[in-house]
Design goal:
The chain has 205 residues and is mainly alpha-helical. It has seven helices and three strands, in the order H-H-H-E-H-H-E-E-H-H. A three-stranded antiparallel sheet has the order 1-3-2. Strand 2 (111-115) and strand 3 form a beta hairpin. It is elongated and about 65 Å long. The two termini are 34 Å apart.
Length: 205
């Protein structure tokens, strides 16, 4: 669960007052180094409100509310992973609700389920490049729609109004699948080149 107590002790001691008040925390008071220094995590209440706002955006895009909340909670966790108990505590929902949300998100390849070493508890982890994986999984659906549309065009005949309607659908799905494949290729080439690594920001040294 994302709590203020999860921060390093020196960061809590140096920045808790400022974070709770909503003002900027004194990073130097936390004992940070010059490069790759940690940043004080936002107050738990601030994080909770962000989770709900981000989940609302996902819901508007068509994702069910509970999976959207679980996904948002995982995205803001430091490790990108949480157990069912941690999600239940943070989101104040039932274990069954978390389980259903995890199944939903797994179907879209947005997270993986791992067994904690030496434990029977599962840990849910955001997949690296999860949005890419979720988008790539749609190609299977597009292929099915293309195949069904082609069957419709052949069934009703390409010279009929119905057949032409299905034929146009076939052309559309063929086009979209080719375009998406190109986008995926360009994303793999582009990924990682647009953002600086740790310690490489433009702030003066």
């Amino acid at each position: 669960m994302a709590r203020a107590d999860d921060r390093p002790d020196d960061a809590v001691a140096g920045g808790r007052g400022d974070a709770a008040a909503g003002g900027p925390a004194d990073a130097d008071a936390g004992g940070q180094g010059e490069a790759g220094a940690f940043q004080v995590r936002p107050d738990a209440e601030v994080v909770s409100r962000f989770v709900e706002r981000f989940a609302a955006v996902l819901v508007q895009a068509g994702i069910l509310r509970m999976p959207a909340r679980v996904l948002a909670a995982l995205l803001v966790s430091e490790t990108g992973s949480m157990t069912s108990a941690e999600l239940v505590e943070q989101l104040q929902v039932s274990p069954a609700a978390v389980s259903g949300a995890v199944r939903y998100l797994s179907n879209f390849r947005l997270l993986s389920v791992e067994r904690e070493p030496g434990s029977r508890r599962d840990r849910y982890r955001i997949l690296e490049d999860g949005w890419f994986q979720a988008s790539a999984s749609r190609d299977h659906a597009l292929a099915n729609w293309e195949s069904a549309s082609r069957e419709g065009a052949e069934l009703f005949g390409h010279d009929s109004a119905v057949g032409q309607r299905f034929a146009q659908s076939v052309e559309y799905f063929e086009f979209i699948r080719k375009e998406i494949a190109g986008v995926f290729t360009r994303w793999q080439e582009y990924k990682g080149t647009s953002r600086p690594g740790p310690g490489s920001d433009s702030a003066p040294s």
